[in-house]
Amino acid sequence: MKIFKSSDPWTPIVISTTLGLFLLALILKGFTRDLLLEAGVFLVSVKLILMANKNAETESRLERHLTQIKELLAARERQSGDPTDSSRFEAPATTERIDNSAR
User: What is the pTM for the complete model shown?
Assistant: First the structure.
């Protein structure tokens, strides 16, 4: 499973424990109306684990993008020659103010 290959080492333990407790409750309580409550708790746990996995993937993707941006900025700085040249960071001489109240 792809979930077990996540960066979080606790994910397989949480999944196994939650599934074990769900099966234990199913055996002890049987197929009663409390089964829906137990299934709801199990599904919430699975959803939280899936969200944590997606968060980890997004974080790694953002880190890769930030690394690429840093590399591009470093290459641009090397091309310009003078890293202390601040003229390229100055605001333009003419700036217009956008008036949103006229809309």
Answer: 0.51
